[in-house]
Amino acid sequence: MKLIILDRDGVINHDSDEFIKSPDEWVPIPGSLEAIARLNQAGYRVVVATNQSGIARGLFNIVTLNAIHQKLHTAAQQAGADIDAIFFCPHSADDHCDCRKPKPGMLQDIAARFDVNLKGVPTVGDSLRDLQSGFMVGCVPYLVLTGKGESTRSKGGLPPGTTIHADLAAVVDHLLKSTADAAA
Ligand SMILES: [Mg+2]
Ligand SMILES: [Zn+2]
C-alpha cells in the first residue's frame, strides 16, 4: 500500500494567521485537489494530519471543524480526489499532548489505523513542525512554499533529506516522475 501524509492549512488550502474558523474561510490552493486526484490515480491513499489548536483556544468547535472537513471532502470529490482520513490535534501547546506536531502521535495513529510502517512514506508540510514530526517516524519530508513555506525555508533548520517544492502539485509531479523513472 502506498500512503502519503499531508498537512492541511498552507498545503491543501490557503492558511490564515487568524485560523480557518468556518467552512467559508476554507479555500483550496489552486491545483491542490487535482494533485491529490493524481496521487489517487497512481495508487496512493491520502491522509491528512493537522494541528487545530483553534479548538483549544475556543475559536471554533468540533461541529464547525467537521463542517470544514465536509467542505474539504466535497471539494475533493468534485475534483475526482479522495482523502481517506483526516487526523487532527485539537490541543494547544499548553495541553502537552502527544498528537500536536512536532510530536509524532498523529502519525503513529495513522500507522496503526492503516497498519503500515511509515518508513519512506512522503509527508508534505509548510511548517517545520510538520517535517519534524514526519522525520521522527521515518517519513520523507517535503516542504512546500505555499502557506508558511517561504518563511519556514528562510528560518532553515529543516530535517535532513527535506526537499523543497513550489506547492503540492509540484511535489506530486516529483513523486510521480520518481515512480515512473523507477519503473522504466
Ligand atoms: Mg500548515
Ligand atoms: Zn493533541
TrEMBL record:
<dbReference type="InterPro" id="IPR004446">
    <property type="entry name" value="Heptose_bisP_phosphatase"/>
</dbReference>
<dbReference type="Pfam" id="PF00702">
    <property type="entry name" value="Hydrolase"/>
</dbReference>
<dbReference type="InterPro" id="IPR036412">
    <property type="entry name" value="HAD-like_sf"/>
</dbReference>
<keyword id="KW-0479">Metal-binding</keyword>
<dbReference type="InterPro" id="IPR023214">
    <property type="entry name" value="HAD_sf"/>
</dbReference>
<keyword id="KW-0119">Carbohydrate metabolism</keyword>
<dbReference type="InterPro" id="IPR006549">
    <property type="entry name" value="HAD-SF_hydro_IIIA"/>
</dbReference>
<dbReference type="GO" id="GO:0034200">
    <property type="term" value="F:D-glycero-beta-D-manno-heptose 1,7-bisphosphate 7-phosphatase activity"/>
</dbReference>
<keyword id="KW-0963">Cytoplasm</keyword>
<comment type="similarity">
    <text>Belongs to the gmhB family.</text>
</comment>
<protein>
    <recommendedName>
        <fullName>D,D-heptose 1,7-bisphosphate phosphatase</fullName>
        <ecNumber>3.1.3.-</ecNumber>
    </recommendedName>
</protein>
<dbReference type="InterPro" id="IPR006543">
    <property type="entry name" value="Histidinol-phos"/>
</dbReference>
<keyword id="KW-0378">Hydrolase</keyword>
